[in-house]
User: Fold these one by one.
Assistant:
Number 1:
Amino acid sequence: MVGKEHVTMIPSAPKTIWSATVNGQDVQAIAPSNAILLDVLRDEVGMLGVKRGCDLGTCGCCAVLIDGEPRLSCLCLAGQVEGQEITTVEGLADGAHLAPIQTCFATHGGSQCGFCTPGFLMSAEALLNENENPTRDEIACAIEGNLCRCTGYQQIVDSIEAAAEIKRGDAPAPSPASDPHPNPHPEGPDEPSMPPGHAR
Amino acid sequence: MAGGYRQQPGASSGEVRKDGKRVAGKQKFPPPGSGGSRPTMAPRDLDSIPESVGGKEPQPAGSHIHDRYRTGTEVGKPRALVDSHAKVTGQAWYGDDVRLPNEIIGKILRSPHHYAKIKSIDTSKVEALPGVLAVATGADAPNTFGVLPVTKDEHAMAVEKVRHVGDLVACVAAVDEATAMEALNLFEIEWEVLDPVFDPRKGLEDQDEPIHWRGKYHVGTTNVQKRVFQEFGDRSLVDDPTASSHGKWRMEGVHHGFTEPHAVVAHWDPNGRLQLYTPQQVPHYAHRALSTVLEVPMHQINVIRTFVGGGFGGKSDPFPHEMCAAILSRKAGRPVRINFSREEVYWINRGRHPSYIEVKMTADEEARISGFDIDALIDGGGFASFGHVTSYYNGVLATAPYELGSFHYTGARVWTNKPASGAMRGHGAVNTRCAVEVGLDEMAEQMQVDPIDLRLANLLPPHSRTISGFRITSNGMREALERVRDGSDWDAKFRQMPLGKGIGIGCGFFISGSGLPIHWDPNRFPHATVHIQIDMDGGVTVHTGAADIGQGSTTAVAQVVSEVLALPIEMIHVRSHESDTSPVDLGSYSSRVTFMNANAAIRAALDIREKLLNAAWEMLGYHPDVLVLNDRRIYYKHDPAVGVSYLQALHKAQEDKGSLISSGAYRSPPMGGVHKGAAAGLAPAYSFSAYVAEVDVDVETGLVSCTNVWAAHDCGKALNPLAVEGQIIGSCHMGLGQVLSEKMVYGRTGHLQNPNLLEYKIPSVHEMPHVTPIIVESSDPEGPFGAKEAGEGPLLPILPAVVNAVYDAIGVRIRELPLTPDVVWKAISAKTKSLGGIDETELPSPRLEHSSLQATLVARGLEHKERDRRRQRSEDTSAYVNGVLFGFDPDRPLEDQVDGWKSAVEPVPEQLAELGLAGKAWLKKEQRQMGGDQ
Amino acid sequence: MMLMPPFNLHHPKTVEEACELAATFLANKESFDWVAGGTDLLPNYKWHINVKTHVISLANIPGLDTISMHEIGAMARLGALTTAENVHPLIASAASKIASSLIRNNATLGGNICLDTRCFWFNQSEDWRRSIDWCHKEDCGTGSDCRVIPNQNTLCVATYQGDLAPSLMALEGTIHIIGPNGPRSLPVDEFFQLDGITRNVLQEGEFVLKVTFPENVANRTGSYKKLRVRESWDFPEAGVASSWIPGDPSSLRVASTALESIPRSHQEEVDALGTAFSKEHIPQLSEAIMKSIKPVNNTALPPRYRKSMVRVLAKRSLREILGD
Ligand SMILES: Cc1cc2nc3c(=O)[nH]c(=O)nc-3n(C[C@H](O)[C@H](O)[C@H](O)COP(=O)(O)OP(=O)(O)OC[C@H]3O[C@@H](n4cnc5c(N)ncnc54)[C@H](O)[C@@H]3O)c2cc1C
Ligand code: SF4
Ligand code: FES
Ligand code: FES
């Protein structure tokens, strides 16, 4: 397998200091001048939520928001987005509060294995930021660059519709996914509710 | 409610920080004695408690032995996956997200040749490259492995020869990716290139150098890896058929296409134990293979299953790159991470076999199916993988859901110089199922009957036996067919739509867990084990080895434990990642997890339940029979105020013992016939499904788009309807890919031309039809709360439904998958030419004029419907074996009733001449029969 | 990860600076590529195809992304073209069919026009191409033959699969180029040049600045038909664009893409119709267009099929502009 035909990999391109705003924080990273944004985000900035599914633009797992626009980080030179504002899946939640789109992906089956989920969330978030009342077709167009092998997309579209409703204020933010009973103090006809821990 | 605890983070908090962010809220947590986030006991959810135990949940399929453990807490409720929050926040850690301190990067050198001997490998230049920390070749790991103990034919890296382009040759670990990649080019290898075989049909012939050598079991000197012959029933019934169909199919290989490429991290910890992180569906087999290859006892290896970004069968073999990482890490003394490019994912493959399938079938004058005659030649690629089983599944999984007069199957799997095929969702059953269902459609057309009525009048009932001896228990096939017929408005559409629009039906049948574990005797060891441990805090830790690959097995386990113990699901903590802490589980394949693992979990939970009830008995003085578990509380049935909290009972039960610990196991019942291969396809339960698909065909371009699918699947009992629907829709997507656009293209030089997601065409959101999932619940007597599988079976019917719908739309039967536009267009052109060169837009649409048989079928279908209802509800418990429809007595051996009733697993010499393509594998003798034995 | 071989990325801030950089590299005999959105260049680089020592990014030059009815800058993003209000509907509709919405947010007009030609023997990793002993387009010094049409060492027949070119041709676009030797412009029709390696008339150091359209372009109606298996991601397997000023047969323009190594204007076939254009002429014209092209086997679908489909696409496109 030796041959003059081989393209040499070392030494790598000269390193430069790359800076940008990632999830609201100014970050600086040392990366080769030819670095791909995806690699910088994962390996240097530590945003492992950005996924690599294909490295060639065909799966959307690596989507991030760049100045609010969803783009593929695997087909983006880090140097080209120097100084710009980048949002990854890690930046969606407001502190400990999940964004509606995150909650809805959980409650509506939008995420099975979850590997495609970060990418879908970014595409969906960008859509809902522009259009709070998207049709199912508009949702489909927004996520056409994201590949999901598990869900068949239908529950993803459901999830995005549900999140749009919450964003519009047409539906209340859902209770935590772990609570199957919506009402914590129910009064059922069958049995009186009673405080636990008071045995005779 | 004085002095409740607080838990972070909670739903909301009014506080806002200076930068506008809300402050993490705190959530009220009730005082000790409860656990969970609800401060008071919820009333019993009677809607989720079965009728048989006094609830309001209807049970059309009858009661279930687990009914009395239902507490209305979780089962049957749509539920978010318990790990979904990790997934939506980016915190789920997949293979490539494991970053260990001091890690280095491993890379694999892959074969540029299809088939070649390695005469020598010189690694001196590689080792000399600064930054290279370890180099390994096949010589470092001579032991073979393979997922099935009978066919261990893989090495970590090629030992003597490479078997396909992309086969592993050597590997290196270096300080960074660039150095490792550079190093790959410094290996100096001398090859002796051999003649490759790509066409599986050629693989049946004798070769100078077969791809593998099986010693005395080798079939001639061919590349046949496995051959199967099976014949059951009365072959004379196929004479003088009223209708017959003969189809020769060509199905391309397809790949799982999971979004997460393989990745692995190996780390020998300071104590000399191997910690191996890998996205595995079947960590246990990887564990065994690692032990063999590395020559390290299993207890010195901890296999840590990371989150798995989709598997579908493609992550269920032990993989050579897992060995490579371990070997490199051992040499370098540092953690090694290997992650695959998408192209490498295709090299390791294990996708569905490219297949040549021939199906002949006949129906008699009463439109009973007198015979299935199936021949399947499948292309195994370079290694055996699961192929031994696939060779059987291609035939035996076609023996239901219909009652057959006779069944004849010849199958062969051959090695070729391509990446290995293996198990993929719907393992082995998908291609033949498609061929069979399309054949039925054709026979229905010949007999001028409705294809749904043809099926309804030929179904095996619940609690019956198939022609090959599989034990069918619950069976929701009929309901599935009826519901898709209604849902799709079939009767108003079939054979009535304009040219270019079509509707089609397809059914499916699949195993719910394989009856025999691969590695051990099921009579001695269980299939699955689950441990539960509860400490004083009341949190329930469930240890299971079941691998959650996105299908939600962790959620299912948490749900059943939550249901039995009547505890909120957030109190159940499933630990399943590490082999150190998880009991052995056979992994996520053959749709076994929910059935077996949840059954084991129920057993473990019942043990705990009994301990809690006994403690409550002691405290309250009421016998457990009159105690009720509900939402963190145990109380006297007739006076709910008399009770103890869960925590009180727990602490009582813990006196003298400390933690409560239990273990539950699942073992399948003895079943099945005695013939060779009888175990293949045996399962403790089977799932059934029926789909109707609607398509639009652009007759000028041949583009097919599927617009609507009504998908009914019998999963026994939907523990989590949201997840079941997700599986159904996801299966539709995957099956649709195979039928419309996906194929692994091997070009004229035998190279895989499309090892990427651009040219390997997985449907996008635009290709997805609207799917109406319909859940059929037949309540399986042995399933956990009645549940059966829902992960694989739902894939099967979509293929034939679409192919049949295309026929309905354009009147052309195509037996070549996928139906890419060029294939459809070619078929349309041939048809228009045969009709005298008419324009495509003038193609006649097929129409249906019922014959007199239609009435016979409808009547029989109605009669059988009543028969099935009674059997399902155990109102009729008489024996039923395949053959009753043909007038045989189920209580006497069939062999005694007909002369010709066969049960053969090898052809007799007279048959050899008439065997199909794969059957030709039987023309050769095994080496031991030829006197050879080496 | 598909690590790219090392190269230096440069970010000129003005057109002049870009030209100067190019001139310097040329003078030093150092190789370089332009990069716009990178959605075509980067996959090739990840496959280690034709990697240069320097790459000059056009992304930081302001003013190259104008979008209007009469002028579109080379750096206009395809995503913006699909939503912009003042762009010709034919361009918007053709752009909306390219790749996926995510890719369109990176991809640019200039990159789309200058797209490298494609071939399944070629758009593969270094390892893969080594396993077939390379091919003529990137023979790595081995003198390898073309794998599609063997036994000739002079020609690459890789397929040009850009989606926008035929529409730009049908709207009579003019392409504006600049380089160390100054600016020049020419009709889009004349921009492309055989073979699959040469691709276009750009001289070393030149790059595309913008495409402009004639005054009357707004009067044109147009239609682009694309053949693809999936409605996302897929490159065209064949594409036909047509346009005219309704009622004026002499204004009829038809062009095709994804069938040969360059997109093609079908003026010859259109002219053969004479001075009329109505419904009755469609079959004849479509047939003539089909006959004029010779696809080869290096894309997803077989060439015979693609050729036949040209007729269907042309027919549908022409019907649409006739309002039929
Ligand atoms: C998954 C996938 C699917 C795709 N599908 C399609 C499709 O359906 N249809 C389609 O047409 N394309 C498709 N593409 C290709 C590509 O995304 C688009 O053509 C895009 O418009 C290219 O623009 P870019 O700015 O990203 O190009 P770049 O990658 O930046 O450049 C492409 C080439 O043009 C040169 N170049 C760029 N700008 C200039 C300039 N101003 N002057 C001179 N040379 C220049 C570059 O040097 C390079 O050689 C697809 C790509 C991917 C990855
Ligand atoms: S057309 Fe021939 S020379 Fe050109 S890329 Fe393909 S194989 Fe290579
Ligand atoms: S990793 Fe970027 S699109 Fe697949
Ligand atoms: S959830 Fe698995 S790929 Fe989308």
Note: Residues 16 and 31 of chain A are 6 Å apart (CA to CA).
Number 2:
Amino acid sequence: MTVKIYIPKDAAAVACGADEVAEAFKKQAKKAALKIEIVRNGSRGMLWLEPLLEVEAADGVRYGFGPVQEEDVTSLIKAGVLGAEGPKKIKHQLAVGPVEEIPFFKKQTRLTFARCGLADPVSLPDYKRLGGYKGLENALKLKPIEIVDIVSKSGLRGRGGAGFPTGIKWKTVHDTPPQQKYIVCNADEGDSGTFADRMIMEGDPFVLIEGMTIAGLAVGATRGYIYLRSEYPHAQIALNAAIAAAKKEGYLGDNVRDSGHAFHLQVRMGAGAYVCGEETSLLESLEGKRGLVRAKPPLPAHKGLFGQPTIINNVLSLAAIPYILDNGPQAYADYGVGRSRGTMPIQLAGNLKHGGLFETAFGITLGELVDAIGGGTASGRPVKAVQVGGPLGAYFPREYFDTAFDYEAFAARDGLIGHAGVVVFDETADMMAQARFAFEFCAVESCGKCTPCRIGSTRGVETLDKVRAGERPEANLAVVEDLCNTMKFGSLCALGGFTPYPVMSALTHFPEDFGRPAKKLPAAAE
Amino acid sequence: MAREPWSEARTRQIVAEHVELEGPLMPILHACVETFGFVPNDAVPVIANELNLSRAEVHGVVTFYHDFRREPAGKHVLKMCRAEACQSMGCESLVKRAEDRLGIKCGETSVDGRVTLEPIYCLGLCATAPSAMLDGKIVGRLNEAKLDKLLKGAGA
Ligand SMILES: Cc1cc2nc3c(=O)[nH]c(=O)nc-3n(C[C@H](O)[C@H](O)[C@H](O)COP(=O)(O)O)c2cc1C
Ligand code: SF4
Ligand code: FES
């Protein structure tokens, strides 16, 4: 009998030793003449358990053990993980039971990530066996405008940060006259605290390819590019393997599934510039230029890549499309609250006990995410601040833990959900240092086109250094506030325009870290 | 990593391999870094000429992106993440430790040319922070012991 075990190939698992664990299993099984099959799956998203070994029982239920290190393999085998009796009754200190029963997993609504972690990510037969390409099969029976309507009705909004309705974007490109059009996937995922794009590209790359192919059909685009940040070499390998498999089976190429429609897809690597995640900077970069942000209009939908009509969407926006085309727009729109429809793959990161990917309908509160799902800090110290939405997102204090995860609710509190990265800091965090870092990051990454961003950020760093040195702190904090105002209103894009969010939220909510008197809490707030 | 010495002929060959692509410049520059370890100044006019661009245009692109280094790096490159999620898990004290061990500041190469220490802003491993990358190999849950092992492996 061959025992089937799963050890993720996801970069987070690999970074924590998954390759060494897989190698050790291979060696020891060989030595003991045990027949095993090791599937290198995507991650289930419970990253504190990575590398998570899964062993399939006779009834198909998968039992987990984690986090496994190379040196645990001997004791795991001794405990029987490769034994004929199956994993159900195994006693081992790393045993976590049936993986899908773990509360972190069970509480999710996995629509986009439904398949992630189940099988070999670059096996097309596995993708189809698990329900893949049904969305495309449906799309092939529809008129382009019908596909666009379905996307509009789903209420899907761009997952890259701005939350722009995807259907409207597609309609605009659909309505331009026939010519060379492009589908560009923004896989630049530069925000600290975010890794959902990476996980889906490594763990279920076909779902992105399918989403892009459907977008191509909807607007009449025959070429697509995935602009991938160079920090993601593992995703590059997975995407290229999946693209090759899709081509071979006729899911990409001159004649997609004998439909007469062509769709060609290529991966292009970024080169370490954060600003190239901004859509027009990204297009410049794809064209082989400096990543300078373009003034809008014209919109990319009218004049995008090489001046042609272009859909540019985030990885998660495009990866949500197959579900919507397979199950209908209402099935997706049924999840969520207000104008935030569907699910969001939220990334819990930083100083958290249970960090990972948690896909859920919009509307869950920040407090539930941090305390209940994330289990509080990894350090065991109280939470001080939570930064949501990457380096341009605001720092929220505990008093804001009742904020619902929803575009409008965060905006109402001068924050943003951005790409849904949640980074937790414990009480040792120095919020003036965090504010300084926000300025510094902006200075390093600014494309240089506008003065408030280019110069203002550097002045911000200098001014906070003066405050730190005790040099006229109040006057200098007033300069900081002033700089933030100028940057907010005088910047062309959100790099300069939103850097004030982390800075001002730190100053507003944690004045004591800037030498100002602490805020008085309303008595009932804690 | 073993790299080839720069040559004009090899540069032309790299250009020829990519020239059919739409927007070939970025892939060409990546290939240069992969082949030579950096983008030598001498490569700029060659690429410009082959692609019918001005030198200034190519130079502008090379200098815009962090990845297109213009000097060879040390024998080993250690990139340490200094972005927010890694900060929340104490990356700064680890960076300091690496700096002290190597006797350099982040962004520099050790005097013996063995190790280049560079900052990186997020590797997408933010739930297993702090993170680092040594010669392309990623490392999560970095701590002092793991860092010392990495440095030792790099001969520092
Ligand atoms: C400085 C900056 C960085 C950005 N980085 C990203 C990114 O890494 N990934 C992304 O999808 N969108 C990013 N965006 C947002 C894009 O400009 C754009 O809104 C998005 O790609 C549109 O896709 P969506 O509608 O599917 O979200 C960034 C914006 C700015 C201003
Ligand atoms: S705000 Fe900064 S990054 Fe954005 S366009 Fe202006 S200078 Fe460039
Ligand atoms: S912030 Fe360091 S890996 Fe993301």
Note: The radius of gyration of chain A is 24 Å.
Number 3:
Amino acid sequence: MATRTKLRVATASLAGCFGCHMSLLDIDERLLDLIEKVDFDRTPLTDIKHIGPCDLGLIEGGVCNAENVHVLKEFRENCKMLVAVGACAFNGGVPALRNHYSLKECLEESYVHGIGIVNPHIPNDPEIPLLLNKVHPIHEVVKIDYFLPGCPPSSDAFWVMLTELLAGQEINLPYSALHYD
Amino acid sequence: MSQPSTITIDGQTVPFQEGQTIMEAALAANIYIPHLCYQRDLTPDGSCRLCTVTVNGRNTSACNTKAMAGQQVLNNTQELQDIRQTLTRMLFVEGDHICPGCTKTGNCQLQAVAYYVGMLSSHYHHFYSYRKIDASHPDYFIDFNRCILCELCVRASRDVDHKNVFGLSGRGRKTHLVINSPSGELADTDFAVGDKAAFICPVGAILRKRTRYTTPIGERLYDLQPINVVGDAQQIHAGAKRHGNQN
Ligand code: SF4
Ligand code: FES
């Protein structure tokens, strides 16, 4: 078969901590094999601001603000396959612990009543994306094709997923690579 | 009554004694049937349905169905694993099961069963309901948000410890764990470290204070091998080994 053009991959961190991206980078020298096979579109690594048509999109983090929703929808429109990576994309994760409180309570605790606050005031710069009332896992907003759980998923789990996807196989995570924490 | 007392589970012949349930016969033959609300020495509750098996073509719970000669039981089929996965997903969205934030993680039976049935996502919409944590007791705290209503603590406290500390209250979606004390707080009961109910919770709802995060990742109960090999979560009260005696 004639050489196939490289697959195009995009990644984004929404309401996450970038831990999943760090774990992806943790595949170490296997990154060299990976860039032989894929081109990166929008990711925090390339600094491309808007995603173009892609084969694969990886989303880290849940959805906590209006911007997250826009990015996620843009990814869904452009990616043939969209994968939720990490515990926050899976069920909101640690950011979703705020779902037990109202948004008002959270903001007031952080910016008005919290310890050591000198100039109490809730930030309202128009540049700051508006927070949603609750944090949501991404499958509540768009259709997700595959999930890679873990906090973060181990670099080996990323590697298994990526290599098996690139080979057009069904993904078979070994037991030790499947965990929710 | 001279019939041979055997059933088959996934085609394997399994002997049983009169009065045994399918779960008991399976355990005796070292066959794993997923379960959350079942524990060897307690009366079966039949509430979690994780042990759903197909008996002569009909689905039923293995923990409270008596074994009867000639039954053909299906256990490890894709169809049943899918049903069980639906159940673990519902349990995950109903409570507060944010594993990275829970000290039971790695030793949690809900997690382990979900791994076993191949759950990669919670699929449904999360409830994010909130009940206040009870930290009144000197040695234990209770996070009601993680309770899966298995009633293991209810049965252990009532039938083994004879203290009747726990109960379930409410109906349907509103069912929740309550503490039987005038204030509703655990500190107001005679619940204590040596109780069976103190180390029976399969999830992170009843937790011993000052004993958490003591096992490194990689050495926890379910880190390397699945639950069908390792067994139930109650065998350890994670951390208690190192920090206190269980009896
Ligand atoms: S507290 Fe634990 S043992 Fe008790 S009913 Fe809830 S999940 Fe079961
Ligand atoms: S173990 Fe049988 S219903 Fe829970």
Note: The first strand of chain B starts at residue 6 and ends at 9.
Number 4:
Amino acid sequence: MVSVVLELDRVREAVSAVVDPEIPVMTIADLGILREVVIEDGRVVVVITPTYSGCPAMRQIEDDVRTALCDLGVEDAEVRMVYHPAWGTDRITPEGHRKLASFGIAPPGDETSILCPRCRADRPRMIARFGSTACKALMVCSACGEPFDWFKQL
Amino acid sequence: MTSEERFQQIVDAEEKIEPSDWMPDAYRATLIRQIAQHAHSEIIGMQPEGNWITRTPTLHRKAILMAKVQDEAGHGLYLYSAAETLGVKRDELQELLHQGRHKYSSIFNYPTLSWADIGTIGWLVDGAAITNQVMLTRCSYGPYARAMVRICKEESFHQRQGYELLIRLCQGSPEQKAMAQDALDRWWWPSLMMFGPHDTDSTHTEQSMTWRIKRVSNDDLRQQFVDMTVPQAEYLGLTIPDPELRWNPERGHYDFGEIDWDEFWRVVKGHGPMNRDRVAHKVRAWEEGAWVREAAAVHAAKSHRRQVA
Amino acid sequence: MILAQRLGELISNAPELEIDIAIGNIALDHLGVARALYGHVAKLEGEGRDEDHYAMFRDEREFLNLLLVEQPNGDFAQTVVRQMLFDVYQLQLWEDLSTSKDRVLAGIAGKAMKEAAYHERFSAGWVVRLGDGTEESHTRTQGALDRLWQYTGEMFEGEQAVYQASWERRVKTVITEAGLVVPDDPYQRTGGRQGFHTEHLGHLLTEMQWMQRSHPGLQW
């Protein structure tokens, strides 16, 4: 039993390190896409949830999770996609917030409290509520003019 | 020390030039031209790929393609905003594009004729763009360099998806593989052209290198791209349409044939297969939307008045 | 699915870049929901079908979508009016289904509900802007509303009648705010849910299904 627990910890660690294909500084654990790793009937089950219904990165993430499992020698595993409860930006970890900011993306939060990731000025201008990906809006800093993405609150 | 010398000192020290810093007029003009051209390329690039959104073979591929084209629009917007930090307006830049006075990447003047073209664009065109953009992440102008860092990550994702699409075709039926080969035959040379003229014929390279906007010459980037791509083509089992292509152990690089420079200049000057169609499409969409933009402006003014009153 | 396909036609054709991105985003959300639902149906049916079966290999009469969503994009006024009429309906439908006993369906609906709220903000916002904008935009938007109104009754057939009152309330609020008039048109065209469509659907399917139908049995 002890070895199973240890094994599960190792699996969990490896799966947690899988990165988001579009924001590779973020792991799926940071983003809250990884919901849990459990053993059901002696089989590893990795439960993930999509950020947005149409997010095209999900299949890639699924593949990357499988590769990570294979590297550990876990061949017989299930990657299960669940929709309930729906993902929200509150799932992003504090570590995730820190990483986003250092990558130049303003982390999610109240729309009135967005700060320019470069000069920390407040009240940026919103250029587009929908940015290059569904999860981001494009902002321009009113002080230094820097364009930057804001990870939208959902 | 003159302003110009101080500027060069900052650049030589590998520090970034920011929007409020002094910069030579020619540096500003070069950057505006280059960033705008980059933004225009993202926007025009939506057309050849958008051409297949309604016809993807599977829903998964439809989601990937829609997201990709949307990414491009987002990158275009991001880059226009980066250009605006240099004191121009997006509308002015778009107007220059519509009038044919601004260029965009010539690669988009070729048509997408089969489903394999979508994978090939991801693999070759995005691959070539990334080669170029990785260099630009170290560009001396801060907002552009930082934009490139984020855009590069998203482009790498596209490239991986494009290549994966081709793997699927190449492992599929003979008919699918032929489709992939035909696409490679058509897109290979135009992709090599994306790196621009030979260093000896490039008018901007030397100055851009001094200003550290550009860090690697056209020919060196092209070589990097060929070296990276040939093994990928071998893995797919496709033949690159260049009889002179071979590994040169002495140089440690692939040797490759000469680009058809007549074709290169013809397309640059506006006589590629799709130049007119691309610009006409863009202008049509813009003109058809005039009443919408006007309505939005009038409504905004009315709401403002109502608020004040 | 059908609306995602329609909106997909518009990409690179919008009046401005921001709108292009928003439309792409909305299309992607609709597509995502459709795929999740197809996946769920496939599991329930248990006959080893996948999402592409439902989208690519059914004929026109087997599609049970609303007539409203298969209507052509027309000008931007028609696009956003169609979207607004549909978003308001969907918002309620998803809200309701998010408490379904079917946990998977509830999950999909819960997610779709959040997204539909974003969509409605976009579409209703534009209906107001256009209705209240210039004389031209007002005329076009009223025209779109008058044309599409005949396809709204179908949304509330059968069990779905429960959504009608609150849908009407919300839609009327938007229309009034836009300075437009609620159409007084007793004629309602229905049939979508019985696979009895307008002539537009066949063309849409021809384009959407062409690759799979002309190269059958391959992996893409």
Note: Residues 17-45 of chain C form the longest helix (29 residues).
